[in-house]
């Protein structure tokens, strides 16, 4: 197996993590977390989400959070936008990159964004016009790539089809979400064998939740296919409010420990990452959901 020499880590804790916490963090707390993450060497940070506050109240203050960040030239802050209304709010906040999110499962699409897969793609098309006009980069997510909480198994070709449509529409990259963390190395291979027939590996990111403890081994499998963009959340925060039982994203600390051990460079400093991990864990009143963080912090 040939592994990439470098991996770009996309930190999704402030969005994917905090959207699923019972308590909504205050603007200052989120800003402090993102500030600490910005000092680690991470240069892609998903800072919030412009979705309906009735659907995800934890993200309602995303505009204030993003406005309060001192945009550093070398850091790309981004936010989720499900529709034009979300994109307009994102533009108003000053964010330069957004993400649309679709699914490979019809039932999940309905539960998460209240429309079918094909309707969601139509919505995104309208969003692209405004994004292009404002020079905003658009990333795409596909959820349920290895299983759905409502439909069970998902065919790899359903993942490939939606991913390809997102790329053709103008997404610079598609992040493949194992939303409920059910994948295994074999399922990861079967899915990637199909997706990579249609899409160049440089446009693919892996976004694995760790519900069944499989995220790292699935990432290792994806690295073997040449995937070199990995989404993760500091302290293993996360989940998805519309995927019952989905636990956190794979922890950034665990991904970094593995990549460091494989001599794959990321530009991220572990000690600084542990500062951010301790901060958010203290705010939430619990230990990080990361074996590496707990071992290194001696908790
Ligand atoms: P809807 O109810 O069909 O929308 O929801 P609507 O257009 O009929 O509007 C209904 C109300 O929402 C209206 O307000 C709109 O103004 C408002 P009202 O008149 O009732 O007061 N509204 C909005 N408000 C703020 N921002 C907006 C917005 N749009 C409409 N952008 C909608 C459709 C998509 C809005 C809703 O279903 C929604 O917000 N869903 C988001 C769910 C979500 O955030 N899920 C978690 C993120 S995805 C995820 O975690 C997976 C991922 O991590 C990858 C993986 O792990 O697989 C990315
Ligand atoms: Mg997710």
UniProtKB/TrEMBL annotation:
Similarity-based family: Belongs to the HMG-CoA lyase family.
UniProt entry tagged with the keyword Ubl conjugation: no
CDD domains: DRE_TIM_HMGL (cd07938)
Gene assigned in the entry: liuE
Pfam families from the UniProt entry: HMGL-like
Protein name: hydroxymethylglutaryl-CoA lyase
Domain Pyruvate carboxyltransferase: start-end pairs: 7-274
Single biological process term from Gene Ontology: ketone body biosynthetic process
Molecular-function GO term, any one: hydroxymethylglutaryl-CoA lyase activity
Keywords linked to the UniProt accession: Lyase, Metal-binding
Pathway in which this enzyme or protein is active: Metabolic intermediate metabolism; (S)-3-hydroxy-3-methylglutaryl-CoA degradation; acetoacetate from (S)-3-hydroxy-3-methylglutaryl-CoA: step 1/1
InterPro entries cross-referenced by the UniProt entry: Aldolase_TIM, HMGL, PYR_CT
Species whose genome carries this gene: Alteromonas macleodii (Pseudoalteromonas macleodii)
